[in-house]
Amino acid sequence: MPKVRFEPSGIVAEAKAGETVLDVARRSDVPIDSICGGRGICGRCQVQLVSGSMEPTKEDLKLLGKRKVQSGSRLACRLKVLDDLTIETPEYLGSSKHVILESSDDIRDMDPVVKELVLHLKGSSLEHPISIHSQFDDVLLDIHDGEWRVPLSALKALAKVSPDGQDLKVAIRENEVLRIQLGNGGGIYGLAVDVGSTTVVAYLMDLRSGKVLAVHSLLNPQIKHGDDVISRITYSMANQDGRKELQDLVIGCINQLAASCCETAKLDPENIMEIMLVGNTAMHHSVFGLDQRLLTLVPFAPVTSEALEYKGFEIGVKMSPEGYACALPNVAGFVGADHVAVLLASNLDELSAPHMVIDIGTNGEISVGDDAGIFSASVAAGPAFEGGNLSCGMRGAEGAIDHVTIDKDLNLEYSTIGGKRPRGICGSGAIDLVSEMFLAGIIDTSGKIQQGVDPERVKKKDGECRYVLVESAGSSLGREVSFTQEDIVQIQFAKGALHAAGEILMERRGIEEKDLHGILLAGAFGNFVDPESARNIGLFPEVPLERIKGIGNAAGSGAKMALMSKRLRLKASALAKELTYVELAAQQDFEDRFYASLYFPHLDWSKFPEVTSRVRR
User: Fold this and answer.
1) C-alpha to C-alpha distance for 213 and 456, rounded to whole angstroms
2) Residues 561, 111: Cα–Cα separation, whole Å
């Protein structure tokens, strides 16, 4: 069998008949970026042939260009292994330190479902040889009159109790005993997990104090099958074991995060009594091994919208043997438990004035409302705001251009994450750049690049204009960092969909832009994007900047709140049932609104008087 050697990692793997280099890399845990899931349309899986030869495919030539192909560049997803090959992969994919966002540790509502009690058994005598189990049942009935479930694992612990009596530390959940410990015991802990399409974040919490003991994050390993959930669902449907593979990938990630958190806090993962999971509907279904096929079919209804509670071992989570894996409810096919968690954390249902809440990832969820009612929708924003589908885009990792300014003399300044030499541009940098290019007149209101405004940076190749931020010599990867006309289109599509959705939700809520008291930006997007830049391009209405604020990883915050409070779990379920979901595909005016919102900042400039007054050319 032919072998593939991957440099600089030095990993050598055998290839099966007909496998591509991308297939081999996935099987060997060699990180190669692939937004499209290996369909040959994104061009992100570029590798370099070090030894061996292979004729280029039409996709290689189209996406990489003749010059790169002649120098040995190939798309890993198109490169079939017929003989031994040595491949060089971009080193940064394996070494990037991905930026995570921690939210506040302030947990105010403390009423966890899992509790720890100290119970005393008096013991038995020859006159009254009562079984340890019966004694234990009697003590439990003093706490709560009703039927208790005592699992075999707990019964085995009771066998070690002294016949003379003893104090026990007992972890209970409702009317179920989860664990019995003699002596000091190991405490009770919970894990709140935000299962994002791109990043999975876990928070290890002490269920007695509400304190966050550790936070860790990892890239969602399902990314190897595509950045967007539709690509992953397609994979699960097209491959016999696809659904199980995707579940194993995300469960493995959760287990790795749990182990890392426990290592940081110096405790055993078996002390994790409960896990609270949130994620979009597709990720929710994937965690629990549910068929996602219905999410691709009209009317895009999920298998379940209910809050779920199952034993952790049923889905493969490594935790206490009797512990539970739980999830907040979904709302619809593309408004999931993560957005319910965002609403919970933002207290939108308790605000006295209308607010807009936006949580942008590959899928964008948006809600408008207050204590008089909430209207929610989902838009396919695509991965552009996370650096995906952009010619030089990348995630928020070291070397990513994250902020950009262009002054009145067209001088460009930028910063990179970690202060490293630039590798590409991430979502916040892309929004800054488009905003600055628009204000400087380098792009017009339709988004078209104006070649004559800045001829030093605006170049043209194969009929397409691009704006060059960094020449090849200044890039850490030795390739130009630029922004093309197609990149601008990707931003237009994403921001146009969000703006149009916001307009429809405000109309359904019965308010105008002047009535909008605030805009809350959730997640990494809300943490790193410049609100002024986002407003300049028309991503949301022109409200005063002081009314726009980031609220951190609200999905993670909501997961922590639900983990620590039975009342807030019930509130989350009520929120999911009571809000009004608006299916944008069913709105007759969505297409017209979307078209008008593609313009910068909007086709109707009267909606953005402050922004348009600042356009310099």
Assistant:
1) 52
2) 10
- Find, among 247, 346, 342, the residue nearest to 290 by Cα: 247
Alpha-carbon distance of 449 to 453, in angstroms, equals 9
Region of 317 (left: φ > 0; alpha: ψ -120 to 50; beta: rest) is: beta
Of all residues in the chain, the percent with pLDDT exceeding 70 is 95
pLDDT in tens, 562-584: 999 999 999 999 999 999 999 99
Q: What is the pLDDT of residue 9?
A: 61
Interacting residues of 138 by C-beta distance below 8 A, sequence separation 6+: none
DSSP 463-493: TEEEEEEE-GGGSTTSS-EEEEHHHHHHHHH
Query: Tokens 């008087």 map to which residue?
Result: 609
Q: What is the pLDDT of residue 559?
A: 96
pLDDT confidence of residue 35: 66
Which amino acid, one-letter code, is at 396? G
Q: At what angle do helices 485-509 and 590-597 cross, to 10 degrees?
A: 130
Reference 261, options 310, 328, 199, 192; nearest CA is 192
Structure tokens at 326: 């739980």
Measured between alpha carbons, how far is residue 519 from residues 22, 158, 366, 496 in Å?
Answer: 41, 55, 10, 17
CA 557-549-595 angle, 5° bins: 105
Q: Is the dihedral of CA 305, 308, 312, 313 positive or negative?
A: negative
CB environment 51-61: b (16+ within 10 A), e (fewer): ebebebbebbe
Q: Which residues of the chain have pLDDT under 70?
A: 8-10, 35, 91-107, 125, 127, 382
366: left (phi over 0), alpha (psi -120 to 50) or beta: beta
- For residue 464, give both structure tokens: 């397409």
Tokens for 556? 């993670």
Task: State how far the alpha carbon of 139 is from the alpha carbons of 123, 159, 205, 524, 527, in Å.
Answer: 12, 16, 28, 48, 50
Angle, helices 554-564 vs 337-346, to 10°: value is 80
CA-CA distances (angstroms) from residue 479 to 364, 385, 475?
31, 22, 6
* Residue-level pLDDT at 70: 84
Find out whether 573 and 389 touch, Cβ atoms under 8 Å: no
Do 136 and 87 contact (CB within 8 A), yes or no?
A: no
Give the β-pairing of 355-360 and 518-522: parallel
Determine the number of helices (DSSP H) and then strands (DSSP E) in the chain: 19, 26
CB 35 within 8 A of CB 389: yes
DSSP class of residue 454? -
pLDDT value of position 266 = 94
* Residue with tokens 């940064």, as numbered in its chain: 92
Query: Is the omega angle on the peptide bond into residue 2 within 30 degrees of 0, that is, cis?
Result: no
The residue written with tokens 């493969």 in the block is: 316
- Any idea what DSSP says for residue 164? T
Q: Which residues pair with 166 in a beta bridge?
A: 121
Whole-angstrom distance, CA of residue 392 vs CA of residue 228: 18
Enclosing H/E stretch for 256: helix 242-265
Task: Locate 247 and state its tokens.
Answer: 């579940």
Strands (E), 343-499: 355-360, 364-370, 373-379, 400-406, 412-416, 424-425, 458-461, 464-470, 481-484
CA atoms within 13 A on the CB side of 123: 9
Task: Let me know the angle formed at the C-alpha of 529 by 32 and 580, rounded to the nearest 5 degrees.
Answer: 95
Q: How far from the centroid of its chain's Cα atoms is residue 29's Cα?
A: 21
Query: Cα(57)–Cα(76) distance, rounded to whole angstroms?
Result: 11
Q: For strand 199-206 and strand 212-219, is the pairing parallel, antiparallel, or unpaired?
A: antiparallel
